Amino acid sequence: MPRCLWWPGFGTEHAFITASGAAGTLDAATEKLALCGMLYINGRPASTKTLSAAGGGSISFRLGTTTWLSAGLSSLDVGLQDLDVTTGSIRPDGTFDVKNTLTAPTGLTSAAWNTVSMTGGSGSKTLSHGDFVAVVFDMVTRGGADSVIITGVSPTLTTTPQIPACSAFDGAAWAVTQSRLPNVVITFDDGTLATIDGGFPLFTGDTATDQYDDATNPDERGQLFQVPFDCSVDALWGILRGDSATTADYLFTLYSDPLGTPASAFQHTGLAERLGGANTAGLVLITMATPVNLSKNTNYAVAFKSTSTGDLRLERKTLADEAHRAFLLGGTTCAKVTRNNASGAFSAESPAINHYMMGVRISRSRGVSQGAEEMDRASQIFVASMGAAAEAAIAGGWKWHQDSEGSAFNGQNVEVGQWVVFRPGDAKRIQINNINCRIVEDTQIDMVVTDPLLITHRPVDARVK
Description:
Strand content: 35-45%
Distance between the termini: 29 Å
Number of strands: 32
């Protein structure tokens, strides 16, 4: 597999995970479940964040089929603890820093996403991005047949998780739950969202499918996204099921300006006969003969359009809140989009809680160095690396490629963002704002190229050393 970044949304590595597997079942007094790992705070702020009984923050999670009926007899503590650093395996230290207590029959909804406010509880916990933490559920008392099932996500993973992990206490000992990762969102008092890094939060249930053919309205469905940097993509990917081995034909397209005037940047005509088989969902990976360049902070979409009578089925996952997109690749720019008969702009879902498993494969970034090897072959001049600051300097009167005594450029010039070729020994290394750059005299620039990979250094044959 080529070096790449799968974008956007959940990526191919999370395409088949579900949120219905039990991370822990609490059906006896003193049983506990801890969702353990390192805290990922949205935006990776340098400042600390606080969850307190006085501040209105909350903890959100998904329950499986739960019985919570014994009025006044069952109680559940929900809150945050530190990790135990003296006893293995991974587990909480047993002391709540902040918590709230729920008493049956209120506060919990079976087989649904639940949010427990810390308001009215006790304590306070201040955390930083990257801190170890445990979200703990403690069945303090249990009445009747009450049973609380907290679900984790179930990736295509059969080994015991390490960090993060779900750890359950059965009344006698702690044990890590096999093949389950945390599914939790923490909302701090100021509204900032966080989750357990490496788990996969947000799902309200199992993967669903949208089924349609060419006669269905809409007959084209896709995923809106933006990229955070200028880049090239060399493939489209999607999780697709065709219900016919002969008539589940489709178009798989990458669009620019999907919410305005959609234009195809790449399109693949797909035949049912070329799929692996009918009635089974799987990865469709379409390689581009020529990579397509994408610009940062610009809307794009990938979409499957049915072109025949055989049904297509697209894998879809649902979030509890569109704000939780902050934890997806692509963040809050992601949304499900649809249109019919290839007519006009796509419509974006609002609220954007449903997301298809599809996207692009980013093969390389553009406008930055591609690594030490390529830096030695072809590198940007430092004005390109400096970006806006260099452009401001040029606008302020800084001269580049101007004729002078002994040097005539005959109108040739280099623009900000272009790739140039020079000998490494002719440049001086420098770091500007933690970015590796090179200072090169304008007379030392040998040529301008559209792609640094055009300049190679490998032997052409065995006679060339």
